[in-house]
Amino acid sequence: xxxxxxxxxxxxxxxxxxxxxxxxxxxxxxxxxxxxxxxxxxxxxxxxxxxxxxxxxxxxxxxxxxxxxxxxxxxxxxxxxxxxxxxxxxxxxxxxxxxxxxxxxxxxxxxxxxxxxxxxxxxxxxxxxxxxxxxxxxxxxxxxxxxxxxxxxxxxxxxxxxxxxxxxxxxxxxxxxxxxxxxxxxxxxxxx
Length: 192
Prior knowledge:
Layout: E1 2-5, H1 10-21, E2 29-32, H2 40-45, E3 53-55, E4 61-63, H3 65-75, H4 83-109, H5 117-135, H6 146-161, H7 171-181, H8 184-187
């Protein structure tokens, strides 16, 4: 299997953590790609020009982080996915989406983008998602899966790219984040 990714994509990191946690580290070739420079390999695998892309052993290209995570979870024989677990994954994906959208908008149009209707919606979404994740019953489950990884990557991405968003008022999330960052898969994939 191959994973097309870049170093600072929270989406790619979530897929890579999931692959490592599922035991595919040795079978996964990392293909570093740049979606901002019309990378020919990436475009051939994903016409949307987005990372990550997982190329399966059968040569099928899977785009979209959640699909990749579900595929790897099932391939590794993971537990059936209950609605609460899928909800947690969706909240983690939503956190990544809102944070990434904010970063990209600022990169293209400056901090004034936060004052736009869309910018304000993204920042409000981050606050609502943090509050919901603070209370989510599956967050501290003993048997963790890709939903947990998505949440932890989203939190780490906030700290990496949007440090002005102080989420330390959510002590359950802080403890959860610290617990997951101590895992080898997170150490191996840290943002740089």
